[in-house]
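User: Could you check the structure of this?
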Amino acid sequence: MASAALEALRELVAALPRLVAERLALGARKALERGGDLAYLYHEASKLGPGYLGAELPYPERDEYWLTHGGPCTALPEPLKTSGLDALEAIRLRRSRRSYSREPLSLTELATVLYHAVGVTGTAWWGGPKRAYPSAGALQPVEAYVAAGRVEALKPGLYHYHPGRHCLELIRRGDPRRLLSRIALHQEHVEEAPAVIILTAVYPRTAWKYGLRAYRYIHWDAGFAGENIYIAAEALGLATVAVGAFYDDELCKLLEASCDEEIPMLLFPLGRRAPRE
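Assistant: Sure, the predicted structure tokens are below.
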């Protein structure tokens, strides 16, 4: 069995472009030197250098900037544009907060955080949307979902944020936070927060242009959007924390997403701060 798998791997590498195969071989050596750290395989293959810009990937160019799930869409209130807290102060005060009040989150608070994380903030010269987060090639792969439990004027359920319409598309009714907490390795604050924002990245949306470099770029994009969540929450006096530990396949199943194309990135429990905060 092992020899058959090794032979299949050799055939796969032989079919790759020569420069990519050479990069993978170098990455494999470095991985072995570091006790089997397989990140070096991708790290070497995706490095740029004179004469090597990475390999093209067979993804078609796409012109959509967000997914549409087709469910009924709950209109969100206009997001707040000011909070009274200076941007530099919000950055300085930002903290990871895992304790939440039992008070519900207001729909305006949720709408404000979503808008300032991934919302449409303008129109670019080519006609496409400008977004609240910077994005490699302006390809905007990040999607946002909301697991809502205690949000005023919003029934418990799993929703997808549609940035073009500034509304929440219903995916499934019923409070998903307990299941989401289990998927997140039973982290209690995931279930205790009134709502959880889930960020994913649609990999082919970036990969058609940037090839092997794209996997790096979508993580950067998600990080930019995630920091926006932190800053918006701080400006509103809310609590949040980035959660990166979860069972990928189970989370994709909950979101009704393909883990091969739409990759889960981060969870952000969101709510009013507990009194001790």
